[in-house]
Amino acid sequence: MNKFSVDLTNCDKEPIHIPGKVQSHGFLIAVEQSTYNISYISENALFFLKSAPEDLLEKSVSIINKFINPQAIEFDIEDLLKLGIVRKSFDAISPYPIKIGDKPFYLIISSSQNEWLLEFEPLTLQYDIQSLIGRAASAMLQGKTVTALLQGAALEVKKLINYDRIMIYKFLDGGHGEVVAEEKEPDLEPFFGLHYPASDIPQQARELYKLNLTRLIADVNKEDSPIITFKENQPLDLTNGSLRAVSPIHIQYLKNMGVHSSFSISLISQGELWGLIACHNYSPKFIDYKAREGSKLIGQILSSALEYRQDEENSEIVTQFKNTANILTAHLNRDKYLADALTDHDVNILDVTTATGAVLIFENEIRTIGAVPTNDEINELAEWLKSSSDESIFYTHRLSEIFSPAKRYKNIASGILACSLSKELNEMIIWFKPEQIATVNWAGNPDKETLKPTADGLLSLSPRKSFEIWSQVVNNTSQKWLPEEIASVLRIREIIISNVNKKANEIRLLNEKLQNAYEELDTFSYTISHDLRTPLTSIKTYAELILRNKSIDESAKKMLGRILTGADKMNFLIKEILNLARVGRSDIHFENVDMQSLLNEVIAEVSAAYKMDKAELVLGQLIDLKGDRTMLVQVFTNLITNGVKYSSKVDKPKIEISAYIDGDETIYRVKDNGMGIDNRYYNRVFELFKRMDNAKDIEGTGVGLAIVKRVMERHNGRVWFESELNIGSTFYLAFKNK
Ligand code: ADP
After folding, report:
1. Contact 563, 539 (CB under 8 A)
2. Which CATH number fits domain 21-122: 1.20.1560.10, 3.40.50.1580, 3.30.450.20, 3.40.50.300?
3. Ligand 1 contact, 638 CB (< 6 A)
4. How many helices (H) and strands (E) does the chain have?
5. What's the gap in Å between 696 CA and the centre of ligand 1?
6. Is there an atom of ligand 1 within 6 Å of 691 CB?
7. Each residue of 305-339: pLDDT tens digit?
8. Superfamily of domain 11-16+126-313
9. How far apart are CA 88 and CA 603, in angstroms?
10. How far is the CA of 695 from the centre of ligand 1 (A)?
11. Domains of the chain, residue spans
12. Fewer CB atoms inside 10 A, N or C side of the chain?
């Protein structure tokens, strides 16, 4: 064989089913099906039969009978072959115990293309292994989870064949593998958790593993025995043979690990190679055919148990995801805010998948759970997602390959699963999975050894080299998203969107109701205030008439005085309500408003109405506004009146009015140094008729700020205030500058 230069991928091209050699712990004779003549024979037949193999070539198979101890055989070889042909299988015949001289052997018959393969190997087992296998199988099946099952299988196989190390390899995505269970002698370095690249087990070897469920390499240092034949250019297909010699690359690999014998059992699930039970021994060790068959049976039982348990575990995951969906639905129905419902409880959006981090981007807010990138990185990712995918769901397990900024946080998010909640608002949930390598837990040290080519040009292949190659292959990738996870995310998306729609509908209905109520209230207030004014005017007029009458005494005068004050108050209240109703009802007329003149007018009016001898009114920078002048007069009258009223008890009341520009808004500020407002009632101050406790002995109706708020709403503006008790209040009005 030529020298190989790099790695195990060379094996992909190697015709391993026709190696032209057998392992020399046994020997092989191939019999041509059409003639019953010996057409191939391994050279080491000489050693076992003490007869030159080339002399046996082209002879009838019956010549073999003379080497076999007649006391130990009921049939001759030809009869055995015929029996197999009639039964269409040699399974019931193999292994057939015979003796050559006084040495016990098994004859194992299988078929190749044009020949039958007769393999002779030593019989070494002295006891009945059958009962042991039964016990091993039932002990293994005690394992309730896939992990326990695998561990049990490794233990039972170790007991059965007594090798130094038993590993269970599982094939992962892309043909990579992982050691998922291990039983070993205590002094050996653990391989549990080790990952290796797909190239470690070449494709055609995998195919053979499916056809041939066990393979033994009894001694890596023992020379193989060449097969000789008279058939030119027709190599013998040893696919079904058990003595088949192994690829020198594989032998080298084992030697590099210090392994002397290796045995592997295929694990097949749903017709595919699920994994291998790989057994290593650090000294040569042959395993008797029956023990190999026993191990094969354990492998088969394990395979079907795995299928069942895996299904069970998958359905457990699905059940768990469904439970999460139910719990989140309950939260959504109960909680006022969607973001709280999805992130504030023990069960939250992180439980929708097996991700290690999740983020909810909703209503301009970012909520995160678990390991996630920074907010800036999340925003950048969300923008990219918006521009690059129109689908409601997007997922990848190699994010940084398509979105390079993600390289920075590949240890947190090499995999993302994003589900869009609203395209327009770019609202979404993203789940994150870390780079796979970060989650690997190999007890061995992948960095310990440097790799040097060996004398024959092979790189010294070893578990470390495998790990290194695997690490490069899986660089920047996370574990894949499972179909169950994607289904779970779709389910949650459905639930959230229907909840959002439901809430939006509720709000729309409420809005309509509110709108109607507003209109009714406006009409009502307007009518009633209007209608009340006439009788009130009569009360006032008649009270004044009576008051003019000289014959009434002092106490009657006093009472009439009270009637008049009451009527005035009532008149004022009615006017205020009428004003409020007008703001809602009347059309808005935008015009350029000269603020200097408007404020002069307002101040004159306020000064006339209130005693302002103490108060200082300061006008700072003013900026003209675009708005409804009448309504603006109302706004400033109310705010300045409040400033004057609620600072009337301090020594030097001061009310300042000024304006400034902030972004696309003009802000007016009305500041006083009066009694202030208790911030606990912040949100209630603008409510109709709401008056604070500290303002009770100052005249007022609780209508003014409600008017201010409505005017600002009609101008698409905003109003808010800052206040501190006994220090003063500042009211802000923000008008859009367009
Ligand atoms: P009114 O002044 O007629 O009571 P408003 O609607 O104008 O009604 O104000 C509502 C309440 O807010 C007032 O009763 C008062 O308690 C509080 N308030 C308003 N402006 C001020 C202010 N500048 N300083 C202190 N409290 C104020």
Report:
1. yes
2. 3.30.450.20
3. yes
4. 18, 25
5. 10
6. yes
7. 888 887 888 888 999 999 999 999 999 999 989 99
8. GAF domain (3.30.450.40)
9. 115
10. 7
11. 11-16+126-313, 21-122, 586-738
12. C
